[in-house]
Amino acid sequence: REGALMGLNRREVHRLLTDGYFAVNKPKNWTSVQALEEIKKVLRKDIPTHFQPPVLKLGHGGTLDHTATGVLAVGVGWGCKLLPIFLHGDKKYIAAGRFGIATNTYNETGKITEEMKYDHITEEIFESTLQKYTGKIYQTPPKYSALKYQGRRIGDWTREGMDIEMKPRPVTCYSLKSRKFRLPHFEIEVACGGGFYVRSLVHDIGQALSSCAHVTTLHRTKHGPFMEEDMLEHSQWN
Description:
Pfam families: TruB_C_2 (PF16198), TruB_N (PF01509)
Oligomer: single chain
Largest sheet: 9 strands, mixed
EC number: 5.4.99.25
CATH topology of the largest domain: Pseudouridine synthase
Number of strands: 13
InterPro entries: PsdUridine_synth_cat_dom_sf (IPR020103), PsdUridine_synth_N (IPR002501), tRNA_psdUridine_synth_TruB (IPR014780), TruB_C (IPR032819)
Domain Pseudouridine synthase II N-terminal: 57-198
Family: Belongs to the pseudouridine synthase TruB family.
């Protein structure tokens, strides 16, 4: 049975289950919690019972939207104590967006709340506007988010019909550049600090350009010390 453990000995397996931390590529349409549950199933299945601790504790270093993909920092056992470092660490994203349509979630999953013209937006104006959102800025998080209010996610309160006032808060955007621009679609690359919402950024950019916009796809390429080349694809979860 130990031969199925990729050559790991008892000590190495124990360290994985008590001190582990690594990065995975969160699949699209999975919540971050679902990704952890899948990893836990794999660890339970692949590792003999007598190797496993009584409690197998897993955690992640920062929620990714369920339709988003990319780097998700995962901790196992004592490794979970390192996750606050990743939660507040620098992150990078590639986001695609669409002008002319706003949604209540600020991304492709929400209900359309507004439609506006966008043909007045040029690539030059777009790139100039991006520069206004670099550095330390104030940003209002979306009402559909994982932020907590009275112990529950604000997104859950919102879905139940409760209207919670979202206040602007300081965040940092280290760099922001255009990757593609072809109306009504665009693509940006964002490097930011903790607590930053790319969905709010895209929403704000749409308003700044006298139009509206929402995120159509979101992919995280960096999370704390982990880069894309470090993350394990779903087929590698073993």
